[in-house]
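Tokens for chain A. Residues wanted.
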């Protein structure tokens, strides 16, 4: 890996941040809701919030629209203590992502508005303004690779971060509706993975990268882990497997009563990286990422549900280690 993470490490998170509207109170269906509660959302916004909740210096690299929704995101970033100096406000008709969703575990409806999405307007000139040498780690979510100009800009950011000896981390975060097709996604992800130190994705996502089945995806994850990178291969309720040159191990999930299905992956990533930065072994960091995922699906919202280090410590100490 390129960099050693420490408690004073500085993180740069690249990708989508948006506004979430949750039907209120919890359990309410959107179509009958008369009230909604707001929260910071978007995969990168959630990860940045999770890192900030661990008191780690965190910046977001993204674009938002010059309207009320974009300003909401900027206000939320400030509340979480996330540096927004690399968030560009775009004039014109692009729009910050808006998710209308529910706090329900069964038949959850999640309507995402991403027409002419602002975050996908990230350009190479904005990347050129970033002093990557000021950061110890770059975390990228795969949604940023879905189309240009963001795709080219994101690949350039990976290159710059690697040249600056920062730890390069990608969450595959594959959203089929954002891509022209799975084959194009496979080719693009492979290019991004080649520039990464840590790759996190689920079995469906690795299957897409392998352009094949779950079995093909798992074989690819194993092969990548033999190189100089760490692969976290997530399998939902069956936990995850880490493939790396030094070790291979499995980790289960913490059983909780979930109130919604969203936010687990973002919580996993944030607490995985935060735990690595605070001196935990890779094995313990993955375990703590699984614990954070369990905590977030049992709470309201995604960004607001991200645990602090103290909350995560308490949860892990009070709950049995997951079985594999």
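Reply:
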């Amino acid at each position: 890996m390129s960099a050693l993470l420490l408690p004073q490490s500085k993180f740069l998170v690249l990708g989508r941040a948006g506004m979430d509207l949750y039907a209120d109170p919890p359990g309410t269906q959107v179509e009958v809701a008369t009230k909604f509660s707001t929260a910071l959302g978007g995969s990168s916004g959630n990860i940045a919030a999770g890192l900030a909740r661990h008191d780690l210096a965190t910046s977001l690299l993204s674009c938002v629209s010059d309207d009320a929704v974009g300003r909401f995101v900027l206000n939320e970033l400030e509340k979480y203590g996330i540096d927004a100096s690399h968030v560009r406000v775009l004039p014109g008709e692009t729009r910050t992502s808006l998710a209308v969703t529910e706090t329900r575990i069964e038949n959850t409806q999640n309507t995402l508005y991403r027409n002419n999405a602002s975050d996908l307007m990230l350009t190479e000139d904005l990347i050129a303004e970033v002093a990557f040498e000021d950061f110890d780690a770059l975390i990228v979510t795969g949604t940023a690779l879905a189309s240009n100009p963001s795709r080219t800009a994101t690949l350039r950011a990976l290159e710059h971060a690697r040249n600056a000896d920062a730890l390069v981390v990608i969450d595959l975060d594959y959203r089929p509706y954002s891509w022209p097709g799975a084959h194009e996604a496979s080719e693009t992800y492979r290019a991004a993975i080649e520039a990464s130190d840590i790759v996190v994705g689920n079995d469906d996502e690795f299957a897409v990268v392998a352009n094949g089945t779950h079995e093909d995806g798992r074989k690819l994850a194993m092969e990548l882990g033999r190189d100089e990178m760490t692969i976290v291969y997530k399998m939902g309720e069956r936990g995850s497997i880490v493939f790396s040159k030094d070790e291979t191990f499995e980790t289960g999930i913490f059983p909780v009563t979930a109130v919604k299905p969203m936010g687990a992956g973002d919580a996993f990533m944030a607490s995985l990286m935060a735990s690595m930065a605070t001196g935990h072994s890779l094995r313990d960091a993955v375990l703590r990422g699984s614990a954070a995922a369990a905590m977030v699906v049992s709470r309201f919202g995604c960004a607001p549900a991200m645990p602090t280090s103290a909350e995560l410590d308490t949860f892990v100490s009070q709950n049995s280690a997951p079985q594999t």
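The chain is about 35% helix and 20% strand. The chain has a mean pLDDT of 95.
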